[in-house]
Amino acid sequence: MSQKAVDDEDMISRLPDDILIMILSKMDARAAMVTTILSKRWHSLPQLHTCYDLDVNDILPRRYHRQKRLYGEAKAGYEAEKCEDRLTDICAIRERHKQWMGRIMSLRASLEHYKRCAMRRYVKLVNAFLLVPKSARKCRSIQKLRLQTFGSSSRYWIDRWIIAAITKWKVEDLSLAAVDHGVFNFKHLNGRQKVRLNSLSLSNWIAVGIHKSPVFRRLTKLSLSNLSCMGETGSILRHCIQIKDLRLTACCITVDQPVFQIDAPRSKIKNLQVEDCNFVKLYLFSLPCLETLVCRGQPTKIHYGNVPQLKHLSLNYLQPETIIKDNLTSSNKVYPLKKLFKRIPPLENLVLQFKGTQMWVEQTPIPSWFRHLNRLFVANVPVEWDIFWILFLLDAAPVLEMLHVHIGSPGKEDTGEVCKGIDAEHLQYSNLKELTVIGFHGARTQIGLVRQIMKLSPELMHVHLLDGNVKEDERGLGNLEIIQYRSEWHECERAEIVDELTDGICSGALVVLE
Is the pLDDT of residue 244 over 60? Predict the structure, then answer.
C-alpha cells in the first residue's frame, strides 16, 4: 500500500460513523476502504454490546418525512374534494383532477427517489456490518439483530444477510421487517451447524419452507406480523413443537367470516398473543401447555378446547366496528358478555379492558363461569360507562379474593345508583379480601361502587383508593402495572370520604385513601 493510501485511511478512520456512511454511499472508489474501517470499528466494540437495530428510517433524511406528510395531506385533500365536489362542468372536474394527481404523483416520485437512495446506503451499511471476513469477526456473536428493508435494492442481498447473521454471527434473536413484502426460503439454512437462533420475528414476510427447516424447529419464540396468508401457520405450530411464545399481530384471513384454528396437541406453547387481527372466531382445539392468552383489538369469540393449563386470560377489546359504523345505541345491539366467556376453562387471573365511547357490554347477569378465579383486574373503564356492571363479574366469581378496578373521571351523570338488572339484595362476595380502585377522585359513582362492594363482602380486609393510571408490563403478557399519581387530600376531605364509605356498613376493612 502506498504512503498516500495509508494517509487517506488514517484521515478517514478519524471520522464519525454517520460521515463514514455518507462517504460509503457517495464515493464508490473508496467503498472498500470505508467498509474495512466500519467493520473494524463496529466489531472492536466490547463484547457486552451484542444488540443491533439496523433501521432504514435512521438513514432517511428529514425531507423524506416532510414530503411524506405533504403526500398524505394531498391524498386526503383530493378525497375530500372528490366527495364534496359540486361542480357540474365536466371540463372543470377534469382540470381539478389533473391538478391534484399532478401534485400527488410528483410527491410520490420524490418519495420513491429518497427511498431508493436510502436503501442503497442501507445495503452498503449492512454489508459492512455482516459480510466481513472471518478474521474481522474475532469469534464474536450477535445476540439480537433487527433488519428492515423496502424496495428491490436489498432483494439481492437479503438472503446473504440472513444466512450470515444466523450461521456466521450466531444471532439468537432475529427480527425481519419489510415495508412492502419480503420472501426468504428457509431451506437455505438446511445443513448448517452450530446455529443458536431461538427467537424469530417476521413482519410482512413470506417464509418459504419454514416448517420443514431443522433450524426453525428449534425456535422457542415466534412473532408474525402483517400477514395476509395464515394458511401455513397451523402447519408451523404442528411441526415446530419447541415454540413456547407465539405472537400474531395485524394478521388477516381474506374471507367473509375469518376464523383461525389452532390444533397442535404436541405443541409446547405457553404464551399466545393475538393483536389487531381480523379473526371473528378463534378456535383453540388443542394447546395442552398454554398458560397465558392475550387478545387485543376487536372482540373475538374464543372457543376453548383442550387447554387444561390456561390460568391467565387478558382481553383488551375496542368498541365493535359494527356499533361505531351504524351508531347503534339500543339495548339489543350491545355485546353479550356470555359470548366472550362461553365454556371458559378454570382461570385464576383475568384482566379485562373494554374501551369505547358508548357502553357496548351487555348489563345482564352471567353464569358462574369463574369458579376458580382469585384475581380480577378491570382497567380503563370509559368515562361514559356505568361502572356497576362490574358487579356482574363479581357475582360470577364466588372464590375471588383480589379485585383491582381502574376507572376514569366521573361522567356527566354521576348518581351513584346501581345499574338496572342487579339484584343487590341477593349478592354476596364471601371470599373477597382486597379491593383496589385506581383513578379514585371521590365521585358519587365511585363511592357508590366501593360502598356496594364493602356491604356485600364480609371477609374484606383492605380497601386501597388512589389516583393513578395503569400500563402493561414490559413482558407484554397482559399483566398491568399501577402508576400512582401524587394526590394531596385535605384531612377533612379524607375523613369525610372515609366516613361516607363506612356509614351504616358493618365492615372490618381498613380503608386507605391516597
Answer: yes
> Contacts from 483-490 at CB under 8 Å and sequence distance 24+?
484/438, 484/514, 487/514, 489/513, 489/514
Burial class (CB in 10 A: 0-12, 13-18, 19+), 456: buried
CB distance 164 to 136 below 8 Å: no
Q: Residue for cell digits 403478557?
A: 477
Neighbours of 497 (CB within 10 A): 19
Amino acid at 298: Q
Do residues 238 and 261 make contact, with C-beta atoms less than 8 angstroms apart? no
Dihedral pair phi/psi, residue 399, rounded to 5°: -110, 15
Cell of 241: 413443537
pLDDT band at 401 (very low <50, low <70, confident <90, very high): very high
- Separation of alpha carbons 84 and 284, rounded Å: 47
Spacing of C-alpha 101 from chain mean position = 36
Alpha helix ranges (H) inside 240-319: none
Residue 231 near residue 206 (C-beta atoms within 8 A):
no
CA distances (Å), origin 276, targets 250, 294, 315, 369, 386: 5, 11, 12, 26, 26
- For position 330, what pLDDT does the model report? 44
In which region does residue 457 sit, left (phi positive, over 0), alpha (psi from -120 to 50) or beta (all else)?
Answer: beta
CA–CA gap between residue 341 and residue 295 (Å, rounded): 13
Is residue 320 within 8 Å of residue 335, measured between CB atoms?
yes
Gap between the Cα atoms of 436 and 463, Å rounded:
6
One-letter identity of residue 204 = N
| Confidence grade of residue 135 (pLDDT, cut at 50, 70, 90) | low
Identify the bridge partners of residue 314 per DSSP, sorted by sequence position.
294, 351
> Is there a contact between 316 and 470 (Cβ–Cβ < 8 Å)?
no
Task: Give the DSSP H or E segment for 173.
Answer: strand 173-185
Q: Does residue 280 contact residue 257 with C-beta atoms inside 8 Å?
A: yes
Element of type H or E holding 199: strand 199-208
pLDDT digits (tens, 9 = 90+) for 284-321: 999 999 999 999 998 888 999 999 999 999 999 888 76
Q: Are 358 and 321 a contacting pair, CB within 8 Å?
A: no
Task: Kindly tell me if the per-residue pLDDT of 406 is higher than 90.
Answer: yes
What is the Cα–Cα distance from 69 to 164, expressed in whole angstroms?
A: 36
pLDDT tens readout for residues 203-238: 988 777 776 778 888 899 999 998 766 667 777 887
pTM of the predicted model as reported, rounded to 2 decimal places: 0.82
Alpha-carbon distance 218 to 199, whole Å?
A: 9
